[in-house]
């Protein structure tokens, strides 16, 4: 059943940010969330600013729709006929449906990861694509602390893609991706 109470956990931090104009948690502030990266929670600031915390659920639902549209556009691009079934299975999974009814952060995380992988896996890898993929991957890293475990995966992918290239190109690509992936969540990691 859909939640009927406000989603206090993921709206605490944006409320504190709007009140104090800093991402540092002031002493004595009632915070129910852990001090981990909370970039996705910041997308709820507009509804909190408008004194309508409950509308944060709609922002989360918007991320859900964007994920479905991303999956759909990928299936159109690759022309896989069975992909529509994968989208329908994802969209109708009970846990996914439950996630759409609350102000959680998993959908922004999934969207950043999905677009980052799509950009990185395009046919021709360019520095611009690596840069953009790194920023999106950094957005994912700035959403939840445990996502740092995924950091080696794109680096291994770059190693595989550039195995026949010069070592300078490989090193440059890895450094670009690593720098822009880690610069986005660094403020959250340093704060914690």
What report would you give on this structure?
With 192 residues, this protein is an all-alpha fold. 64% of the residues lie in helices and 0% in strands. It contains nine helices and no strands. The longest helix is centred in the C-terminal third of the chain and has 25 residues. The radius of gyration is 18 Å and the shape is flat. The N terminus is likely disordered.
Helices, strands, pairings?
Blueprint: H1 8-20, H2 45-49, H3 56-78, H4 83-92, H5 94-100, H6 106-120, H7 127-141, H8 152-161, H9 167-191
Helix pairs in contact: 3-4, 3-6, 6-7, 7-9
Question: Characteristics of this structure?
Answer:
192 residues; mainly alpha; 64% helix; disordered N terminus
